[in-house]
Amino acid sequence: MLKTIKQIFRLKDWWNHIFPPILGIAYLGVLLNQIEVKMVWSKLLMFFISFLFTAAFGFFLNDIFDIEIDRKVGKTNFAKRFSKSTRVLMIIIVVVGSIIPWIYLDHRLGFIVFILQMILLIVYSSPPIRLKNFSVLSVITDAFYSSLLPSIIAVLLFVPISMNLIHYNYGLSLLLIVMFFRGLRNILIHHIKDIENDKNSNSGNFAVKYGSNTTIKLLKVITLIESFVYIIFLIYFTYFCNIWFVVLIPISLLYFVSKRFDSANKSNLVTDHMQILNDLYEDIFPLFILILLAFFDNYFIILLIIHLILFRNKMLIFLLHLIFIRIAYGIIYRKSCGLINRICKTNF
Hints:
The protein is built from 17 helices and no strands.
């Protein structure tokens, strides 16, 4: 049953990529607000449920309107296995599931942004507008509904916005800019990877219309801007908002450099190196905020454990690989070689 649900709503395509960065912003709001864990559990849960159903709605709706296109190019589409009435029923369920949590969240401006996100999800996939068929508009729209608008909702729900906290507002504005460029970068990378299928389907693929070389050049510019703004965000937040963020700067830089030049992860695809930035937002950032929260309130350790169970963390996997395979193996190998050499010299 669970496997079927994961296939229908394509959870593997977005679960570990869309959720963690947005939750990281929510965790940041909890940290800035200094909210006790008992005061934020239910709010985080309702936000999580709404976001879950919203993402499921977007992907399933897109699959419904892509059934014929996917059939022509031989692409798997799980929505086609259902009758039209079943598809409508499933859409109603996920829409209702995304709206109901807002009864508890009770934030007017946040709900307006949520409605805007739902509208963009609809007009992106659905005729007659179907922004997905327009190369530039499809890229911008995707960046909005998948990254920027959810980030804004998280800020509105969890971060204290007021003139008395102007430094928070400026810092978070930098973070929202990063999230927007992250969205642009990810959808353009997706267009490059899907270029062959989209050539045959006459979709509004940016890379098909403007070419892979032009798209990669644009991606390099976007990645450079995104990286620069993210570094400025970390420096600004360290200086004006939370001194502990100084720890995140070298961690982010070391992780990026180690992954970029890791011989075991060499790739011929330029876009693969550009996706290392995702690890900073999906793994390091939310994990760092949760560790800070747990440091100040031990009850947040529970939330940290739940997060690690729900979401794959490539940073932890990378560190375990580094520690237990490279360092541990290296030490054992050297010690063993040294011991064998001593035995050989003694006996022979």
